[in-house]
Prior knowledge:
By secondary structure, this protein is mainly α.
Amino acid sequence: MDAVSYKKFHESFMQNNNGSSILEVAGVVVAPYFAIFHCLNLVLVANIVSTPLKFLLEFTTIVLLIIANVTVANEYLPVVVVTLIVASVAAAAGQLRFVLHEAPFIQIPTTKPEFITITRALVNLISAVCILAVDFQCFPRRFAKTETYGVSLMDVGVGLYVFANGIVSREGRQSEEQFTWKKFRKLAISISPMIVLGMGRSLSVAAVDYHEHVSEYGVHWNFFISLALTVFLGALIVAPIREKDHLKFVAIVIVTIHEMCLQLGLAPYVLSDSRENILEANKEGLFSLPGYIAIYIASMYIQNCLKWSEPVIKCREFLLQTAKMGLISLCLWKMVYIAEEMFGISRRLANMGYVIWILAIGTSMMSLLMLLELGYYFLKFDKTKSDECVHEYAPIIIKAINYNGLIFFLTANLLTGMINLTVQTMLLDTISSVAIVVAYMLILCTLQTILYVYRVQLKFW
């Protein structure tokens, strides 16, 4: 197929998608959690210390599972998830029953929680798989981004990126301190790489006539610009707030006003085909910002909910915080179905339904990974009694991704562009498609792991 015809075919293939179901999307996002549990379990049981062996085990159990779930095994996703859950519960019950009596003595470090590291890296990992896999026909169309309303796996991406940035936000941690010019300058420098990447992406897409789904963000707008402006504006909004508990009210006010504007006529305008000026050309990116800012500020509030006054706490206190996070998650899921009935869920608008849905998924991931952290310290009680109390148990691929998070995502985007410019991905058979995605992820994960092992952090801001 010639280049012009293929570009039209590719763009038409991405349009008019109505999405998947809330339950199916949750299944794809949650499945890697159980894979991580079994991976850690195997490392503990087999006492694997070799980095290459750990990498091979993790790539096979975690990365390949994600690839399979969004390609060849997507029809069997319920079976995969249920099997992983049953196997995880059985394994946990079999091992924890011998150490539960030690609960009063278990201590858990809180200085650098590993569950936050894993949450952020998983968002990056799933997104990296999907941004290339979506360009192959083996990737189910229901997982691609929705056109107007609905939910899909790729709709989760930008929202969870905002959530992942909010739970580690410096501004969220320092909301009681005065916002000075020095902090403003530091904030501007911190978002500068994303602004540069956003402008670079827009220029390169136009230069090579790369296929682009305009209704995602607009003509010139893109993910990097949305994320940069969300972080910048979110930090400015919370700067005057001294009481951290008030962050949740700020998020509620922003998303409520945003939804009111959408209901009063903004939604039809954003979803229309009119693009007569620069504002209309980028209306999706511009008018979805309030929704992303609400997610960002709500994530800051969640960050403050997970703060402990001591560097090491007893497992009972950690379990209570886990239960609190789980309760927040359950309340949000109830609100998701109410909001879906009232307003619908739209990534393109980042409306109230979308904001609540993203927060529900994010808090669910956090709750499960907090349970994983608790279980790990039970099984490693002999280590926590020594000077090795703070132990980085996260899989090496996960730590490597988190170590150079922006570089990982940038490399993923560059490799995706190179593959699409050299191969007509939509015309390939399933075996070839999956092989390319596996090779792409192997290259990505290997590069990140090498950088992590040699402690090379490509960050200047």
